[in-house]
Design brief:
Blueprint: E1 7-11, H1 22-30, E2 33-40, H2 42-48, H3 50-69, E3 76-79, H4 82-92, E4 97-100, H5 106-121, E5 125-128, H6 151-161, H7 191-196, H8 199-211, H9 217-223, H10 236-241, H11 246-254, H12 259-280, H13 305-316, H14 322-334, H15 339-352, H16 357-367, H17 373-384, H18 399-406, H19 411-416, H20 449-464
Helix pairs in contact: 4-5, 6-12, 9-12, 11-12, 12-17, 14-15, 15-17, 16-17
The structure holds flavin-adenine dinucleotide.
Length: 466
């Protein structure tokens, strides 16, 4: 195998970076030679959707390149069931330990359990060092030793817990790297993905945003809720794939005493909170955390043609409600959507169209580059009112007043709904009031919000009375 002394495997998963990577550091400290691998797992790849598959392949290409730049031979990408591939490689390279960053999602935990069992049978240890979170799920407990149910209390404990120091940098040339001959060959991604995916672009974009005077961190507190300003960090994709670790981000924020820095750190705490909730309640992937919500009547698109048509209109951004349509079209065009708009479109699907949140969550997971089972399912449950510390169900977003409040000049709507680009500000938030003939084919509203709001509250009565 071309190495002197014992080999350690670094099995990369959701930590596709070299900097501040405790699992990689641990492999380097352990082995006299390190074999960096990634396993393309059909169980994850098939349901991921094209958007995330493309991102993954571009990110692997970038990591392969980064490893070569650090004096290595590249990343060995393998394909198959990790419970077969990882023990096979571990045996072939006579490793004593395989190093990973711990996974806390339901599938990842059970996969790692199986891999660890198989390795143990061969006398090899699966070593978990670090996690994709600032504070790993299961760490924080309330005074009764239980997991937190409410974000406010979690956030206080999270802040008191503090953040570890970043892992030491890897000295280029100091590591002996290995490579598997029979690995998957990676194709170069298209130019756009090549310029976005991976640790280098993620770090540059973050640093740029952090120090930018216009719509960067300095303006985050004031503008983060306005999609037209595009003033949020766009960190979610980098955090999802581990191009950046939240600890790196929090360290960069630590010296800044601004309200904006505190507001951003608080959002990162939400990410940790939802990961913690899913760790405690793995059934939340598909079941409402508040069980009474499973009694709520919804319109099933698989059985009702009207519901199927409405779901399609929502997916295509053709509901006739401009902010909803702008958001859904941004999702299809960019694989990303602004948080305020995610809340509005989710509320519209659940409370104006009466379609179960899981249908929307599935569509999001198929189309979001940052699609993450914990963040996605629990944010959907938050909007649906059935999650932990969720928005009360009876608080129903009005898609028109939300647009007037958060996209007052309609710059976001005009960008993603070209039919409305030239419409006057007087009508653009409710184009059905415009004089006939100015809509450029933009649809009439598929439902009347005031009517559906009442319908939603009637359906909610079933839950409330339980
Ligand atoms: C229905 C719905 C589905 C969502 N699905 C996902 C998902 O699959 N993956 C995902 O990463 N986020 C999801 N979010 C949360 C949030 O919308 C995105 O994290 C955010 O829009 C990403 O943009 P940003 O990085 O510019 O955010 P910023 O405002 O700059 O926030 C910085 C970071 O804080 C975290 N954060 C911000 N808001 C939230 C939140 N509400 N919940 C948890 N973490 C948050 C993210 O990691 C984000 O990158 C969802 C929200 C809703 C309402």
């Amino acid at each position: 195998m071309g190495s002197e002394g014992h080999v350690a495997i670094w099995w990369a998963r959701r930590d596709l970076r070299l900097a501040d990577n405790p699992a990689l550091r641990s492999a380097i400290d352990d082995g006299e030679a390190v074999l960096p691998i990634f396993v393309l797992d059909p169980q994850l790849l098939v349901p991921a959707g094209q958007v995330r598959r493309d991102w993954l392949m571009a990110a692997l290409y970038a990591l392969d390149r980064d490893l070569r730049s650090a004096g290595g031979l590249g990343l060995s990408v393998m394909s198959g069931n990790p419970a077969v591939v990882v023990p096979y490689l571990a045996k072939a390279y006579e490793v004593q330990r395989v190093h990973i960053s711990a996974d806390f999602g339901p599938y990842g935990r059970s996969r790692d359990h199986h891999v660890a069992e198989k390795l143990r049978a061969q006398g090899i240890e699966l070593v978990r060092t670090g996690s994709p979170y600032a504070v790993a799920p299961g760490t924080l407990k309330n005074d009764s030793g239980r997991a937190f149910q409410v974000f406010g209390a979690f956030h206080r404990a999270w802040r008191a817990h503090g953040i570890r120091e970043p892992a030491p940098e890897i000295a280029a040339g100091a590591v002996q790297w290995l490579q598997v001959d029979d690995r998957v060959r990676l194709d170069a991604p298209n130019e756009t993905l090549d310029s976005l995916a991976g640790e280098g672009p993620a770090r540059a974009a973050w640093r740029n945003w952090l120090h930018s005077d216009s719509n960067g961190l300095a303006e985050y507190g004031r503008l983060h809720d306005f999609p037209g300003a595009d003033a949020t960090s766009h960190l979610s994709i980098a955090l999802r794939w581990g191009h950046l670790h939240p600890r790196t981000v929090l360290h960069d924020l630590a010296g800044l005493r601004s309200k904006s820095a505190a507001a951003l750190a608080r959002q990162i705490a939400w990410r940790d909170f939802f990961a913690d909730v899913l760790f405690q309640r793995p059934d939340a992937v598909g079941e409402p955390i508040r069980p009474e919500f499973s009694k709520m009547p919804t319109d099933d698109p698989q059985r009702l043609e009207t519901a199927a048509q409405r779901l399609r209109a929502w997916q295509d951004g053709k509901t006739g409600y401009p902010l909803v349509d702008a958001g859904m079209r941004q999702l299809l065009a960019e694989g990303w959507m602004h948080n305020r708009v995610r809340m509005v479109v989710a509320s519209f699907l659940i409370k104006d169209l009466h379609i179960g949140w899981w249908h929307g969550a599935r569509w999001f997971m198929e189309h979001l580059r940052d699609g993450d089972i914990a963040q996605n399912q629990l944010n959907w449950q938050w909007v649906a009112g059935c999650g932990t510390d969720a928005a009360p169900y009876f608080r129903i977003f009005n898609p028109t007043t939300q647009a007037e409040k958060f996209d007052p000049d309609a710059s976001y709507i005009r960008l993603y709904v070209p039919e409305l680009a030239e419409m006057s500000i007087e009508h653009v938030h409710h184009p059905w009031t415009a004089p006939q003939g100015t809509l450029n084919g933009y649809p009439e509203p598929i439902v009347v919000h005031a009517v559906e709001r009442k319908e939603a509250l009637d359906r909610y009565a079933v839950v409330k009375d339980l």
